[in-house]
Amino acid sequence: MQILRSSSALKRFALLLTLLAPAILAACAPGGDQSTFDSAGPIAKDQENIFIFIFWLAVVVFVVVEAALIYSIFRFRQTRPDAEMPTQTHGNFKLEIAWTIAPVFVLVAIAVPTVTLIFDHEKGPVDGRVPENPLEINAVAHQWWFEFEYPGQDVITANELHIPIDRAVRVSLDSDDVIHSFWVPKLAGKVDMIPGDDNVMFIQADRVGTFIGQCAEFCGEAHANMRFRVVSHEPDDYEDWLDSMRRAPAPIVDNPLAEAGRTLFAQNCSTCHSTRTYEPLRAQGEREVQLGRQTLFRKAVKRDEEGIKTREGDLVTLISAPNLTHLAARQTFAAGIIELTEENLKKWIRDPDDIKQGNRMKDLAPIYNDPALWLSDEEVDQLAAYLMTLKPGPEEAVETAGTVEVDPIAQGREVFLNNGCSACHSTGADRVVGPGLSGLADKSSTDMIRESITDPGAVVTDGFPDGVMPGNFGSVISDNDLNALIQYLETLK
Amino acid sequence: MAEEAVISKFPNPFPRPKTNRGWISWVMTVDHKRIGTMYGITAFVFFLVGGIEALIMRLQLARADSDLVSPEVFNQLFTMHGTTMIFLVVMPIGAAFFNWMIPLMIGARDVAFPRLNAFSYWLFLSGGLFINLSFAFNAAPNAGWFGYANLTEVPYSLGDNTTFWLIGLQLLGVASLAAAFNFIITIINLRAPGMSFMKMPVFIWMSLIVQILLVLAFPVITVALIELQFDRLYGTNFFNPVAGGEPVFWQHMFWLFGHPEVYILILPAMGIVSEVLPTFSRKPLYGYPFVVMAGASIAFMGFFVWSHHMFTVGLGPAANAAFALSTMAIAIPTGVKIFNWIGTVWGGQVRLQTPMLFSLAFVALFIVGGLSGIAHASPPTDAQQQDTYFIVAHFHYVLFGGSMFGLFAGVYYWWPKFTGKRLGETLGKWHFWLMFIGMNITFFPMHWVGLDGMPRRIFTYPADSGWETINSWSTIGAFIIALSILLFIVNYFRTWRREPTYEADPWDGRTLEWSIPSPVPVYNFKEIPTVEYLDDWWAQKYPESVNAEPRERSPGQPAPAGAEDMLPLNGQDVSSYGASSYGDDEDHGIHLPDKSYYPLIAAVGFAFFGGSLMSAWWLTLIAGFIMMFGIMGWIFEPVNDPPPEEENPGGHPEGYSAEAGH
User: Fold this and answer.
1) Cβ atoms B179, B603 nearer than 8 A
2) Which of A25, A488, B86, B272 has a C-alpha 20 to 30 A away from that of A319?
3) Does A339 touch chain B if contact means CB atoms closer than 8 Å?
């Protein structure tokens, strides 16, 4: 009481606090990788600055009001039980008006920069100017991973976005399923990714680095493990990276483990995971494939609700899955939650739920649900070895691709493996998801086979559900490959 | 007469309960005090449930990469924690105070519709049990208390989890609406003679405003819930983007309800604090008309700020700017309240007893919550803070530091009125300080970790995120809060065993409830008081404070300090709470509404009807029959059974017996 009543001590203490406060704040400002401080781009910087401005205003208000409260508690504390009745004041009109109006000034001080920034950030990342040549990115969210498309560049990645520094990046945000949110704290505040709505946001990095992003809108079971990375490069390095993404991986030579893994991947994984979006047609078709799967997923679940059970195996063709093109060139996998190493890949393939609970692969992929298909340790090693070969090959590989004369039947078999056909169709007579393909040439004409590939809904074999086979093979497989595929299919006995 | 013929024809399988003892008298009661007690006890049990849910979450988050619970369980926990604390704790504790205090503070003998009041309670209980029943089916709601579409649509939310939530909330909504209409009509119509609107206690004002908010806000969420229910159960496409529906539309409707809901949660606490601060400062509330008008304008403006929950949705710069400005404007009336509370304490004789400590802490903590609210009223900063722990910190300062502290202030303040004895002061202070310290250790660091980029609703975070230390502190703080609640429970039981002191006016109170005995007799006021002043009881005790001549006291009211009048009327057996206010109290000659079991039947039938929508159609038929039986019985039942002629003690007082005419 005595100390608090002594106003000079109070004043000195308050002065000390005021002087020390910026130092305290600087020392205490959150400094983690996802911190909203120490921003790495103009938008985040603006947002950080206005927060700091509001913070100090709030501190002033906080100190004044709490001090008034604490002072009045101690100053007017009843000391004797028989204390005199205090003056029965009912209020003061002028004072009321004063403290109704005073906050208005504080609020206007906040409102002016707020409104300015709202409209500025709508136009572009720097000073409210419309950027001249922004980099366009389409970001699409899935449960539970991010897909990044570089429109017109034939490049698609998953969970890792590469951008040049000091250039505005205009990100178009969409979602294939539920609402997610795109948030890289160091670069910009979040904007939601809403199915069917076209949200757009700007980001821009002003230094080279890797920045962590995370989904900020609750989106289901694995929401906590839905992360991604933004990697910023010097402009030249960025162009190099972009070029590398369009090169095929080096052919697998003298690596029997990876070679065996490639076949396993083709049979078990390629239905959902693309690995070849460095090919222009495939890159253009990838979005369509993902959307098609999502539509089919919804329909399949709807059928379940109506009491018509979708066959277990059918769902596998319906889930969206991250693009694995040049996977080995990425820093992390499984939506940015684990470092990409061969060991971690093996761990993931063995039991994805151990790393990321809720992931759809464990739920739906036959290799986890059909005992006949369970992978042995050796097979896991083979798959991981193959995945580690998925990185851009040397530059000359671009020229050789397509120029080598190949046997059309061997080419057709490659097409069959690479497009995930083998995941649903056996080359024998048995049914997997779709019908077995042996003796196809005896049953169908070349044109009918072509139609069944490009427009699977036209004729559906009796006993098989419609709408399971993706409808866009016609657009993702080149004519040359399609002809080879048909020739290969006609050889099946 | 024709009416009587109808009454006698309606099947009435069980005799109307008459007893005032035993569990049956509680189940069938229509007395506002008993219903208030049941609201309070039920809500406190749910408070413990929601608190345990929070503690499990805090344990899970205490360490990085923790695997104490699975993500699915964690999602259920935070969904149920939010749903429970909002709909099953803060709102019903508010309802407990409305029930108990509105009639006592306005000088009435009960609420306007006692049976509707009972119905509200039973439907609230049914809805709360129904939502929690989902745990038994391993299908607890798991999509957040906000239930954002289209995550809550069928393809992404299989199972019955979300359906439990949808139907449970609709039941609770009906309960809240019924109670709200009841209280509005009570406050407007049953005020004691002379109590004009501007002589009503602030708590009554805030109660009235909250009821109006409920009536305006709940229909919005009800429409949204029904639409989502139709999407899920009957295949409509209101929020299905593939079929032209709009998931963002859900967010608009949810927050058009959700933001007024925030004021539904905080205004009762503001009302309590506005009663406690003057009492314990021995001064009138500073700027009474401004506090009242500030409350009303907060409520009004609360309907124009909902999109500040949606600044990251991409509504466009014009919408974001408009909602930013309207949100900032709400700070003005809020500031007026805080300044007036400080003005109330200023120059008073401050007695730091437990209710006062909770009230002062309410003001102190609410300032923090208000100021962090200003930070994310600005969309550019909100873009970084939305859906992070910064927001979690903010609204816990408002809803825990604010609402819960205010409600606890009310519990300690009115406990003598409820039971005839004060809660232990020493344990009460321990409770307060532990809760205050624990609250700040739990929630203050969350500001920091939110600014460090930690999103909400994540069941785990990586070790290299740098969030672990802060989260461990929050967990420690949560357990300190738990300890403080434990002390409250100990205090409750120790007080339970103590002899009542029957102090009618232990705090030297200001409002009418302190003019009647503690515990309150079943009829509240032997004679309905006549009100001349704001804080009329204070004016009676201290006529000099209003420059008035001492008034002649109404015969039914005890003198303020006279010990002989502190005993309950009629000199009954006063050994326990039940006996003192409900015992052999039949000779008071004041006619009160008879007990009824129809509200219970109607409410249970209603809940059963809602739940049956998730299963077979014939169950719906049975449930519908039970519900209709309850409602029809209620309609045809007279408020009071006609008393036997010979026992009629000198005719009926006006009011409750009108329908029972012979």
Assistant:
1) no
2) A488
3) no
